[in-house]
Amino acid sequence: MYKYLVDGGTPVRGTIRASGNKNAALPCLAATLLSSEPVTLRNIPDIEDVQVVIEILIHLGATVTGGTVAGEYTVSVGNIRTTEIPDSLASRIRASILFAGPLLARAGRVELSPPGGDVIGRRRLDTHFLALTALGAEVRIDGQFSLSAPRLVGNQIFLDEASVTATENAVMAAVLAEGETTIENAASEPHIQDLCNMLIAMGARITGVGSNILRISGVSKLHGTEFRIGSDYMEVGSFIGLAAATRGELTIEDAPARHMRMIRIAFAKLGIGWEQSGDTIHVPANQKLTVVSDMGGVIPKIDDAPWPGFPPDLTSIVLVVATQVSGTVLVYEKMFESRMFFVDKLIGMGARIVLCDPHRAVVSGPCRLTGSVLTSPDVRAGMAMVIAALCAEGQSIIHNVYQIERGYENLASRLRSLGIGITRVTVDQ
After folding, report:
1. Boundary of a domain, candidates 228, 255, 283
2. Which of 164, 263, 289, 317 lies at a CB distance of 3.0 to 4.6 Å from 325, suitable for a disulfide?
3. Which of 185, 184, 206, 182 is nearest to 194 (CA)?
4. Of the listed 118, 232, 254, 313, which one is catalytic?
5. What is the total count of domains within the chain?
């Protein structure tokens, strides 16, 4: 177990490269089960969630080797040894549910304990099971999830919510199903686009990538491939917020502009901007950091939505950044009912925030924050706490950094390279 010691008050300075997108890496790793041939994936982030998924792959019978280049893995699944994912693995990660689709398609069955992951409210699995049932799976729930399908057959599927992981499960099952599948109200985030493009490189027939209607013509088998995961635009957004809140200057490499359009609009409401040159972002120092009112002087709102809306993973980040901005803004998290519950810790640090209900918070800034003892509840709130601690006077201690490191690669050492005081130390037992 580890904790962070964070010394506040120092602006970030320097250059940092965005890691690979963890939300693309996890389904792409799971999708290697769909072929008996080797699949090589590049730009995989070195984070806890990836290591758990690799443990699950090895448990299922895969051979996983690390390449000579950092962030490269080759996965070979000649034979699936078991279709059961035990609780000891499934409970460690939300993404364990992503093995349902590929195991059904390749082996015809899967037994899975309820997945773990972030504590950000109810995250229903109904959409996964409705989609897989539409393709011919039978689902039994008795303490664990048991799904079986001697054969999968294409179908017309309308998802009852634009769930990212349910879309991914449906796609992975449909690529080896007999006949045609249409998935409507599909999620279309960049990580889903990565998964679809990887599957196409393996021989899958998918059209509509990047839209909310995916059409899939099933094939009898997929072959191996090599594929590079895209960069993590949520990490890019976190670093932009970090630079602005600490009034620092930061260059972020491997940050494609096409992923940043709505994020740019949201940050602009806080008076934050950046320069984009190719895939490199430069956040200038000492920005004005003043809330830009809506027409008529109305208090602006930053709210999340499915892609291409503002990402829900960045609502925690933008809320903390707003504490350092002059003016009042409403942050409205519509998609998860417990994501705002870390706000009380920010209030204890001196933030002026009114938590209206589980979804809405009104932030008035700028606020003078003081160091505190904090505990990370989830990946993004944990990173938000790091940003708050770096803005605060004095030292903060952040516990449960396991939750942060599930999504941010080598965070402490990377931030130290930007000239700020953060140390990762072992928790005394």
Report:
1. 228
2. 289
3. 206
4. 118
5. 2
